[in-house]
Amino acid sequence: MRTDLIRKTVLTAAGIAATAGGIAGPAIAAHAAPAERAGQVSTDRKPHGERELNVRYQAQPNFYYCGPAATRNALSVQGKEIDVDAMAKQMGTTEAGTDSINDITPVLNKETGKNNAYRSVEIRDNRADGKQTDKLRADIVRTIDDGRAVVANIAGTATDTDGVTHSFEGGHYISVIGYRDDGNTVTIADSANPEQASYRMSVDNLADWIATRGYATAS
Predict the structure, then answer these.
(1) Cα separation of 172 and 66, whole Å?
(2) What is the biggest distance separating any 2 CA atoms in the chain, rounded to whole angstroms?
């Protein structure tokens, strides 16, 4: 069921203009440092509450496939290879994008093989409060520890831990594939630009990036 709060998630012309390299070329393998081999998950927790999954990254093939591409990257950590065109069809993706996280979650469940493997969570406000941020942190840690990635619907501008800004005013989807410092910092796989395939961000910034939209997390 869609909600008014989880708005349309399309990388619009405005979003593209605000993001250098926002339109990716044909899907290519571009491996980020923490994500080199598909289907392999760290089995030992690293010091200071750190864990990352190995994703076989691909950039989105056009400006409106961020939903299918983020879902494909998320599922790759489970060793799954699903064609983005097939997922776009399941999600109802058009040149207007993929409507909401509620169109992503059923596909994650189907491809994971469990009807309740994932659920959608909304952050209803314009900015995330402490309780919503704490929940996001706990959801990410639990999902990553279970060997799965989180898919998030974001909009606006956020800054990563290197001080680089990432702007998607029209909306976008990303995968969260790892965490460190007990979930206070997260690792993102972003299909929009293979030159920025992976980056880290504070969970506080991510929560505000998701605000008014939602994310798919382990049930």
Answers:
(1) 6
(2) 44
Pairing of strands 118-122, 150-159: unpaired
42, two tokens:
């760290």
Q: Give the global pTM.
A: 0.81
Q: Which residue type occupies 24?
A: A
Judge whether 178 and 120 are in contact, CB under 8 Å. no
DSSP for the chain reads: ---SSS--B---HHHHHTSTT-S--S--B---TT--STT-B--SPBTTTBEEB----B--SSTT-HHHHHHHHHHHTTT----HHHHHHHHT-BTTBB--HHHHHHHHHHHHT-TTSEEEEE--SSS--HHHHHHHHHHHHHHHHTT--EEEEEEEEEE-TTS-EEEEEEEEEEEEEEEEGGGTEEEEE-TT-GGG-EEEEEHHHHHHHHTTSEEEEE-
Is residue 42 exposed (0-12), middle (13-18) or buried (19+ Cβ within 10 Å)? middle
Residues 78-133: pLDDT tens digits? Answer: 999 899 999 999 999 999 999 999 999 999 999 999 999 999 999 999 999 999 99
Contact 161, 201 (CB under 8 A): yes
Domains of the chain: 13-218 (3.90.70.10)
How far is Cα 32 from Cα 168, in angstroms, rounded to an integer? Answer: 21
What confidence tens digit (pLDDT) does each residue in 19-71 have? 322 333 222 223 333 333 333 334 344 545 899 999 999 999 999 999 999 99
